[in-house]
Write a structure and sequence with these properties.
The structure holds 3 protein chains of 3 kinds. By secondary structure, chain A is of the alpha+beta class. Chain A is 21% helix and 15% strand. In chain A, the strands form 4 sheets. In chain A, strands 8-1-10-9 form a 4-stranded mixed sheet. A two-stranded antiparallel ribbon of chain A has the order 2-3. A two-stranded antiparallel ribbon of chain A has the order 4-5. Chain A is globular. Chain B folds into 4 domains: 5-37; 112-182 and 384-565, Rossmann fold; 206-372, Dimethylsulfoxide Reductase, domain 2 (3-Layer(aba) Sandwich); 608-735, Beta Barrel (Barwin-like endoglucanases), CATH 2.40.40.20. Chain B is 33% helix and 18% strand. Chain B has 26 helices and 28 strands. The longest helix of chain B is centred in the first third of the chain and has 17 residues, at 128-144. The chains are: A alpha+beta, B alpha/beta, C mainly alpha. Chains in contact: A-B, A-C, B-C. The A-C interface holds A 1-2, 5-6, 86-88, 92, 95, 98, 100-106, 108, 110, 112-115, 151-154, 164, 167-168, 171-172, 174-181, 183 and C 92, 94-97, 144-146, 148, 150, 152-153, 156-158, 218-227, 231-234, 236-237.
Amino acid sequence: MKEEQSKEKVKKFGMVIDLDKCTGCGACMVACMAENNVPFKEDESKKLDSITWLRIYKLTNGKPFPDADICYLPRPCQHCGGKGEHGHSPCVSVCPATATDYSKETGIVSQIYTRCFGCRYCMAACPYHARYFNWWDPVWPDGMEKYLSPNVSVRMRGIVEKCSFCFHRYQLAKDKAYFEGRREIEENEYQTACTQACPAGAIAFGDLNNPKHAVYELKKSSNAFRLLERLQTNPKVYYISGREWVRRAGDNYLKDEKK
Amino acid sequence: MKIDRRCFLSLGIGGAAGLALSPIPWKLADDSAIWTQMWPWTPVPADGETTYVKSACTLCPGGCGISVRKVDNRAVKIEGMEGHPVNDGGICLLGLSGLQLLYGPTRVKTPLKRAGERGEGKWVKITWEEAISEVAKKLGDLRENGESSSVACISGTDKGSVPTLFKRFLSVYGSPNFMRMPSVLDSYELALSLSFGFAAQQGFDLEKADFILSFGSGIIEGWGSPVRMIRAKSSWRESGGKTVQVEPRLSNTAAKSDKWIPINPGTEYALALGLAGVIITKSLYRNDFVKGSTSGFDKFAGLVLSAYTPDAAEKITGIKKETIEALAVDFARAAKPVAICGRGQGRAQGSLGELMAVQALNALVGNINKEGGIFAFPNPGYMAWPDYIADDIAAEGIKKERADGAGSGNFGYAKNLTNRFAETVKSGKAAVNVLFVLESNPLYSLSDTNTVKEAFKKIPFIVSFSSFMDETAINSDLILPNHVYLERYEDVYVATGLSKPVVSLSKPVVSPQFNTKHAGDVVLLIAKEMGSPVADSFPWKSYSACLEEILGGKWDKLVREGFWTDGASSTPVFKTSSGKFEFAGGFIDLAALFAPVNAEGDPKAYPLLLIPYDSMRIASGYIGDPPFAVKTVEDTVLKGKDALVEVNPATARAGGFSEGSYAILKTPKGSAKVKVHLFDGIMPGLVAMPRGLGHTAYDNYLAGKGINVNELIGTVEDPASGLDAAWGIRANLIKA
Amino acid sequence: MSTPDDKTKGVSADTGGEDAIASFKGVDEKEQGEGPGGFVILFFIIGFVASLIIGWVVFPKLLYSQKRQPVDFNHALHVETVDNGCESCHIFREDGSYAGVPKLAQCADCHQEVQGESPEEKIFVEEYVAKEKEVPWLVYSKQPDCVFFSHSVHVKLAGMDCVTCHGPIGESTSLKPYEENRLTGYSRDIWGKSMAGIKKNSWDRMKMDDCAECHEKETGRKSSVQTDKDACFVCHK
C-alpha cells in the first residue's frame, strides 16, 4: 500500500487571477461565503472584523482626474509555500496549537477550527490579511440556517478562519474518482467556488505542477506577479495585469525603484 | 484510638490518590476540551444526499440559468448553469445570494390584511379564500359602476406568462392600465417602433462586435443581462475587441475600457450627433446601406452638419474636437462597430433623442441586422394564448386613456410611461381605485419618492403580490404573497439585449416554505371568483396547467434542459412606411427630437450636479440587497448607516470638505445627510451616489442604511416622447 | 525608623511565636503516647477505594446516558439473506459519497408488510413504513462535525474491510444500547467501551490519534509540516 500511495503525484494547487478581466463585481466573494458557511452580521462596514475569506481590494493609481484609474484585486488566502517551498508559511510557522498546517501533498494551508484557540498569532504573521477572527458566535436569522452546507464546519466564536481553496471540493472529487476506480481527478473536477462563479472567467485554478492544467502556462505570463514577493512567502496565487501601475502595486516599491 | 483531624486528611489524600488513578480527571479534561470545541449552539448542518436542480433566476431581468445544490430537502447553494446560453456557468452575486431570500426573515408568510393605518405595520392574517373573495368583490363592484378602467397594475416586467395573465385579466376586465416599471427598454422599444416600424426588442450581437462605443452603459455593471455582458467583455479581451466608454465618472466599466472619455453629464446625444457629423463629413459611412436601406438621411445630415460640428459638439460635451474626430474615425473604420446607450444598468429611460442619435450611428456604419451588429426581433411569440372574450364593458374600458398617458395625445407611440403615473394620479388627472403591484417595488424604485407616496395615498385599495415585506408591500392594504422563484414554475424570458431570444424555466427547487400562492394561480382564482364573463377567458385549472398549454411543444424541452432558444435569427426587415430604416423616425422637427435635456433646478442655488450610479453589489430593482451582497459593499460607499457620495477632491476642497466629512446634500426634491468620499475618477462639479441603498423596509441587514437616491431625484419629461429624460439633478453640498 | 507602635507589635509577635512552639511540642507528646494510628491508613484506603469505585463504576454511568434504538435490528439475519454483504444496504451513492444508515425507502422495498413474527418488525412496519416516517437511528460510529471521513478512499481505494473499524456488527442479532456522552454528545464508541482507553481490537476506539496512527502505519505519508504525519486536511473539514 505504501508503494501505491507514493504513486500519487505531489500537487501544488494554485490560482491565476487575470486582473484585466476582473470586473470587481463581487460574485467570487459571495460564492465563497455561500459555499463555506461564512456568517454575516448587521453591520459589515467595519472591514477589519468583516469575515471575507476572499476579499476584493480596490486599487487606485493615485492620479487626479482625468488620469485616475482603478483596478480590482481579489485576495483569497495566498497559500504560501514559504521560503524554498518547505511549507514554512508565515502562519504555519507561528501557530502554537497545530491548528494551521501546510500539506506537502497539495500545497494547501489548512485551518483546523477545533484545534484553534484563538491566539491570533497567525493573523499577525500573515502579510496578506487573509485570516479572520470570529469575535462573535455566528447567528443566522431564524430559518436561514437551512441553507448551511454540511461540507464545511460552521465556526464559532474565538477562532480564526480563512480560505481553504474549497478543500472539501477536493475531498468530494476524490471520493467520486475512487468510487469510479480512478486514482487521479481531472482538472475540472476540483475547482474552487469563486473560480466556478466568476462571470468574467478571470480566475483559473488548478495544479501549478501539472502541465496539462491551465494555470501551469498562465503563471508564466510576463505580466504575472505575486503579492509582496520580496517577503519570499512564495504565494500560490498569481495575478496578471497588463498595466504597470497595477503590477507595481503588488509590492512595496520605492518611488524611483525599478520593478 | 480516636478519629481525628488526621484521619479525615488521610481520607482526602486517599480519595485524591484514587481519583488520580480513576478516569475522572483525564476523561473529563478530554471531554470538556471537546465540549469547548463544539458549543451546542453552533449549528451542525445535517448531511444527506446531494442533488442538483436546474432552474432559472428571476432576481433581475438577466435570465440566467441556475443549478441549485440540495442536500436532502434543503437548498444549500445556487450556482450558474453550465451550458446555458446566457451565463454558461457564471453567476452574479445577487443570484448567489438567492437562498438568503428564500429562507430569509423578510418573507411574507401568509396573506395579510392591513389593520392599522397604511405603513404602520399592523396586519391581520387572513385565509386565501377571504383574500381572494375580497379582491373579487371590490373588482366586481367597480366593474358594475363602470369604473373598470380605474384598476391598474404595475409589474416589474411585461414579458413572460404571469405578467401576460395579469394583462389579459385587465383586458377582459376592462382596463388598459397594465404598466411595467420604467427602464431604458421603454426607450429602445419606442425607438425601434419609430425607426424599424414595428414593436420589437433590440438585440445586440456584442460578442462578435469588435468596437463597442458605450454612452455610459454599465457594460460590466449590470447593463442588459449582467452575466452575459461580463462574459462578452472577457471575450473581447481574447478577440481583440475594443471598448470606449463615454461618461462623466470613472465607473468600473470605464476603468476596464480601452479608453475612457469623460463627458459633461447629459450631453451624450450631442457627442453621438457630433460623431455622426464627422462620419458624414469624412464620408466614412456605409454608403450601400445608407443609400439602399435608410430613409431621412439627408434631413439628418443637414441637422448634424449645421448644428453639431466638432466645434459645437466640443462646446456642449466638453470633449476636445480632436478626440471627437479621432473617435468617429476609429468607430467608422472598425469592422463591426456597435454603439450602445442606457446609463448604468439602464434603470432610467433617457430621452428619445439620445437613443435615436445613438441608433443613427449604428445605421451610418450599417451594422443593422447583421453579425456583430444590432437586431430588432419581434416580441416573443413563444407562448400560444387562446383568444379572450371581451364583453361590452371590457371593450369600452380598454379604449379609455391610460393612467400614465401612454398611447394617447402627445405620446401616441409610447407603450409604457409608468414614470408619469405618480404625477397623473397625484394631480388627480387619473383616477385609480385599485392598484395591483406585481414583482416590483414602485414606492422605492420610482424617481421622486415623495410624489409616488402622495399618489399612493390617493389610491384607495392597493394589493401587493410581493414575496417580501418591501416598501410597497408595507404601504399596501392587502398582501397576497407570491412564492419566491425557487418555489414556483415560471417561464423566464430574457428581455435585455441578447442576439437571439432565450426562454428558461424556473422550477420549484423546494416546496413552498410558507402559506404563499403563485401569483398566476391567484389571478386565475380571482377570475373564477368573479364568474362569467371574466372567468370565461381563464379556463385553466391552475397556473401550471396554463403554462404547459401555452408553451405547447416547448414545455418538455424546458423541463428537461431548463431553457429553449430560437435558433433562427430574425430576418432583416423594416416595416416603416418607407420600408427602410428611418433616421428621423417620423419626426418633422429634428431639432425638437434632439433637444438638450437640462437637469432640474436653479444653477445658482444648486451649483453641483447629482448623478446616480449603479453597482453590481447593490441590487436596486424589485429585490433588496440580501445580507451577503450588502457585506460586499465597500466602506467608501457605506459606512455604518452613512452613505458616502463621490466628489472630486477639487470640488470638495472648494466646499471645505475632506474625506469622511459630513455634508447635507440638497436637491430641489429633498435633502439628506451624507459623508463625502474623495474620488479622483469623477468630474469636478459632480456628486455621485449609488442606487439601491436607503431602504426603509426589509431587515436590519439592509434597512436604514444609506440614502435612496430616488428621493432626491425627480423626473424630467421628454417633450418628444413623454419618457423620463432625467439623468441627474442639480444639487448642493452644505456643511453639516 | 521605628515607632512605639512597631515595638508593641514586635513584642506581641514574639509572644505568639513561643506559644506556637509550645503547642507543637504538645501534639508531639500526644502522638508518642498513643502510637501510630491505624485509622489513618484505614481512612486512606477508604478514600482511595471509594474514589476508584466512583471513578471506574459510577462516573461512566453518570457520564453516559443510555438510549435504546427505535427498532431492535437484527444484522445477522439480514446478512444471511442479502448477496452483497454490508454494501447491500449500506450503499455508496453515485457521487462517491456514502449513504450510511439506509433510508426508509430502501427498507420498505422488502418490508412493505410484516413478514415474520418478530415484534420489532411489527413496530418497524406499523410505526415507520406505514406512516412514511424515517427511523431516527442512533449511529454508534458517528464522528463529530469537524471530521471529514471518506468511506470511498478506505473501502474502494484501500480495500479495507468494514470490520476493521466497525467490528463484527454484522454478526449481531440485536442492537446494543446507544451510549451518549452527556458532555460532548459523542457516541461512546468513539472513546471506546474501556474507560481506561485500552484497545484490544482495531475497532475498539476511533479517536483522532487512532486514525493518525493507522494513517502513519499504512500510508507512510508525512505531508504535514507541523506534525510530520499525514496532513490535517485529510480528515478535517
